[in-house]
Amino acid sequence: MSHGPSATTAAAPAGSPRARVTAVLLRQDVILLAVFIAMVAFFTAMNPVFFSRFAFANILQDWAPIILLAIGETYVIITAGIDLSVGATLGLSGVSAALTIRSLHESGTGGSTALLIGIAVALLVGLAVGAVNGVLITRVGLAPFIATLATMGAGAGLTLVVTGGVQIAGGPPEVIQLGNTQYLGLLTLPLIVVLVVLVVAWLVLHQTRFGRWTYAIGSNAFAARGSGIGVDRHLIKIYMLSGLLAGLAGVFVYLRLGSGSPTSGQGQELTAIAAAVIGGSSLFGGSGRMSGTVLGALITTAVLSGLILIGVAPNWQQVVIGVLIAVAVAVQQISARRAQKGAGRG
Amino acid sequence: MADAPIYEARGISKSYGSVVALEDVDLSVHAGEVVGLVGDNGAGKSTLVKVLSGAHQPDAGSLHLDGQERSWRSPHEALEAGIETLYQDSGLCPDLTISGNVFLGREKLRGGLLGKLGLLDHRGMARIAHEELDRAGIGLTEVRRTVKDLSGGQRQAVAIGRAVAWARKVIILDEPTNHLGARQSGEVLRVMDKARERGLGVVFISHTLPHVLQVTDRIVVLRLGRVVADEPTSSFSPDTLLKVITGLGRSTADVIPEDAPA
């Protein structure tokens, strides 16, 4: 390069940009971790039972379906979308698994076979809801909020139709065993699967083209399209991923309870959105991190368990989730506005 | 420029419904040449850019790259063939880094097994992005900065650097100096010089006539969907260029020689 110092380099700040970025990311996760620890301390002070292996195991069990939904929600929110249908999908796939497994069991199919087929059905139900969402958004052109609100209503209604509104019990004993056998005193099989899913989801989001394009679409879909990225195809995949994870969450809730509950997914979409947003995903798209979502899901789950342990009526849970979402978004916007003011104007 | 053009449009016509946007338009650009494309609003510049970049298909006429007739079904095909287009407002992804934007849609994977698993080569991309922006003459090589943190002029520099870095044959710049200050415009014009030195064919679309007169080798003027002038830049003065564009004042024949190729 032959020409002298240019206008563009003049505005570059001092210090390695990489170190700066790392510092910012570190700070966000450190803050979230501090919030989590403060909460654990608070609830323990209110009720010492909170700080026990039993309570932790319980929180982790509650956390498993929430983090699955929140992983999907993180991808969706990074594309500047939203998936309101994940709670309903969780319920629908849970009862689908329960109904399939019960009828196979009653017709004399072996426990493990019935279980495998039931799980496959639940995952397919999740994928199908996600595909419908994706098609409504990209091909029909509905806003994600509207499309997934529609499938949320339809999914919840369908769940009531197929169950008649009652619990679906009566599966083989393998169900409860699979869902509740603990390893190392803390982990169940579903939890181990969740941890594997989490690692893969983190790698895909931060280390692959799929993840990179997810950010690009949420950041500037027009530029993404201009760069040869198949935006519509990618969005359909993202909503199918979110549906698949909701289906898996439905399976885990079913395995844990040993029966399919038609109301098990109610309001869970809000908890998942809260987890992602508390974790730093911006509802405007383009930003969000898996580590933040993990901490966000831990915080929401711990709040919900803690409130029960200190004797707050469960009906308050939705209120608390609503407040958490509002606070998290407000904090994001304030810090975004500050960052805007500080941005270079070369 | 005695040799054959690297990219050529012959007899291009394009209508939208009953509106004729382009009528029998010829445009050519040689390797190492900067061609200015100017015209008033509605003259057909944007339509011509869309045809050249593969975004729209012409109703009539043909495109020739390296002497071979080609047609593009999508911008992607034109990209693959080595034609980069920077649209007025296509912009970048503000949440990605400079390097992430330079490689957007063409991300480089790691070598070996990790690459087969689809893992990105962040370090390699950052290194190449740095080299390419440097080579393109963009003085903005801290490629790990997030584009959100850059000023408007810096963003435009990155967008152009990205296009120059990937262009193998032709680069089409649609209003690249729009909304830029004098200093940043100067930088953009310098990048165009670099692209010319590298043997690319450059098509430069602009309303800013001093920029066009400063950087181009040849100027093509569109008016109402037709080419009304295609002359070496040296044959225009700011005054005559404006007159040819607007078609006002004296007749075209006064400012353009009678035997000018249309």
CATH architecture of chain A: Orthogonal Bundle
With strands numbered from the N-terminus, the spatial order across the biggest sheet of chain B is: 6-7-8-3-9-10
Q: Per DSSP, what share of the residues of chain B sits in E-state strands of 2 or more residues? A: 15-25%
| Morphology of chain A | globular
Q: How many beta-strand segments of chain A?
A: 2
Number of spatially distinct domains of chain A: 1
Strand content of chain A: under 5%
CATH class of the largest domain in chain B: Alpha Beta
For the biggest sheet of chain B, the summary is: 6 strands, mixed
For this structure, the CATH topology of the largest domain in chain B is: Rossmann fold
Average pLDDT number of chain A? 87
CATH class of chain A: Mainly Alpha
Major sheet strand order of chain A: 1-2
Supply the number of structural domains of chain B: 2
Q: CATH-wise, what's the superfamily of the largest domain in chain B?
A: P-loop containing nucleotide triphosphate hydrolases
Order of helices and strands of chain A: HHHHHHHEEHHHHHHH
Q: Report the mean per-residue pLDDT of chain B as an integer.
A: 87
Gross morphology of chain B: globular
Question: Which helices and strands occur, and which strands form pairs?
Answer:
The complex is a heterodimer of chains A (346) and B (262).
Chain A: H1 7-10, H2 17-46, H3 53-78, H4 86-106, H5 111-138, H6 144-163, H7 174-180, E1 182-183, E2 187-188, H8 189-207, H9 209-219, H10 221-226, H11 231-257, H12 268-278, H13 290-309, H14 317-342
Antiparallel strand pairs in A: 1-2
Helix pairs in contact in A: 2-13, 3-8, 3-9, 3-11, 3-12, 3-13, 4-5, 4-6, 4-11, 5-6, 5-11, 7-11, 8-9, 9-11, 12-13, 12-14, 13-14
Chain B: E1 7-16, E2 19-29, E3 34-39, H1 45-53, E4 60-65, E5 68-70, H2 75-80, E6 83-86, H3 98-102, H4 112-116, H5 122-135, H6 152-166, E7 170-174, H7 182-197, E8 201-205, H8 209-215, E9 218-223, E10 226-232, H9 238-246, H10 252-255
Parallel strand pairs in B: 3-8, 3-9, 6-7, 7-8
Antiparallel strand pairs in B: 1-2, 1-4, 4-5, 9-10
